[in-house]
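A reminder before we start the practical. When you read a complex entry, don't treat the lines as separate problems. The point of joint prediction is that each chain is placed relative to the others, so the output describes one connected object in space. Small molecules and nucleic acid strands, if listed, are placed in the same frame. In the example below there are two entries. Take a minute to note the order of the lines before looking further.
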Amino acid sequence: MLNDREVLSTLSMIKNENLDVRTVTLGISLLECASHDLPRFTDAIYKRITTLAKDLVAVCDEVGDRYGIPVVNKRISVSPIAVAAAPFDSRGMVEVAKTLDQAARDVKVDFIGGFGALVEKGMAKGDLALIEAIPEALDVTERMCSSVNVASTRAGINMDAVGLMGRTIKATAERTKDRDGLGCAKLVVFANIPEDVPFMAGAYLGVGEAGSVINVGVSGPGVVRKAIDRALQDNPGAHLGELADVIKRTAYKVTRVGEIIGREVARILAVEFGIVDLSLAPTPNVGDSVGEIFQSLGLGAIGVPGSTAALAMLNDAVKKGGAFASSRVGGLSGAFIPVSEDLNIAAAAAGGQLCLEKLEAMTAVCSVGLDMVALPGDTTAETISGIIADEMAIGMINKKTTAARLIPVPGKKAGDKVHFGGLLGEAEIMPVRSNAVSGGFVSRGGAIPAPLQALIN
Amino acid sequence: MNKFVLSVIGKDKPGILAKISTILFAHGCNIEDVSQTILQTEFASIFIVLNPEGHPLDTIGAALNEALGGMGLSAHLSPMTSAAAPVPAQSQPFVITTRGVDKPGTISAVTTAIASLACNVVNFRAIITQEDGVDEMIMIFEVDMPMGVDHRQLRQVMQQVCAGFGLDVSVQHREIFETIHRV
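Here is the predicted structure of the whole assembly.
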């Protein structure tokens, strides 16, 4: 028999606190489709994706409906295209991108990820072709996302790739300038990318994964914030250790929801269940913001002194709760701090409490990194590469995933508004200090060697 | 068949169960199943009792009523008619929760809607709370939904009937509540 408290608190989490399963991502390996013949390859990947994913949306809706927990996004991740489509040049890669986009449309998923390469130690022919294709590929497609891993703790930072990605981001922004550089919102540069990320734009199916797998991304910044508010209402003098415990317990509940939905979807689709990624991923909606959690903890805004410590506490508590709830926690798991996708973070950036440098500092303890940061259009490719290199260094040295999703908005300057629409949200463009003076360092290229791991900081 | 069903109802006070169980023991009976609940000041319980020595029910009933009568309680006994537990039909457990201003006829309408889809209510609680000075009622029904019924159909029917009474309604698989709250 259920007790009243269990029933009412669950309903409250779902209805008033925006508890949902943020994303169910079906990972599909495309390696078995490998061919030197482009039409044969694109036919094969289209057929494989549309066959495996044809019921994904319907099954997610059915399971979400049965449990009364909405599955907000249904997505697909595929093998790194630079590997699966290695024989093709950049023209071929663009054709592959179009095929992926068409397959995503036809099975009605909102995003497909995996147009990416892993180049932390060096670039092969396919990697180079793919990166060259990125600006056009992101221009001519709508639902496709791209990610490139340029650094890892074991391999170091591929500075040639970092330099190339700075130029690629600029070119992508230019090609999509009629949409405020929207293409860049679907392009991430990573260090230590996990193989099982369900969240875009970094989702891809790692080569060490099963042929098809369901990974689930659970969110719930609203639930965490309300839980903190309730705890403070009951005990206004609660100390941070007590609040960390509240966050941990809430994360546990949220993870359990993700696991039950993910396992059921995987069972019905007859594919393997992968992981639950317990990340607090915000949406641009009131009540679903990571930034609001900072305010509940007693900070004036995200970005003010104390923010890095608060984020560290939040991230750790989320991971502890998740680890107890499920033995299949993976992906990124922590708290995302994407600027434009979080109403409160975007407001802090616009209000001046959150600057690029503080954001970078916070990425040392957050789930991913510099995410959805709109920059002035005149930010040079070298400066963008410098920002990426700094972010990659944080990931490399701290053995964590970091990423940079930067959008130099063509024709706009710091303080201007930019609107990407939907989940990508809107934000004020953040100023970049010391633009155009990093070229001497970045253009040296080569690799920053992997760090010693014994004498750690 | 040497089992009987005993139901006891009346004012709640300390010592009721002690008195009942002592009298049953004195008649050589064994309590196999028991459930009790207290609503506000009222006590109600139901027992399945094994009566291996075949004491007449009216004798046991007279003893119980004599002992409980002074406490403002009454006992009712009836023989059990079936030996084996019924074979449960294939079903899925759902939880229906409604919330809204308390109005006459609400429970009747909601339960009729549940019954119209052959769903069996296995547990039901209604809680009255004050919301802005108005009595608000929360009803929680745990129901077994036959396998042939689509949960979307159940939700649709519930939404239709609840809309007429201005009630918010949710229909969810029971597993989600257990998953969230229980290790």
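Discuss with your neighbour: Chain A touches chain B through 22 residues (CB under 8 Å). What might explain this?
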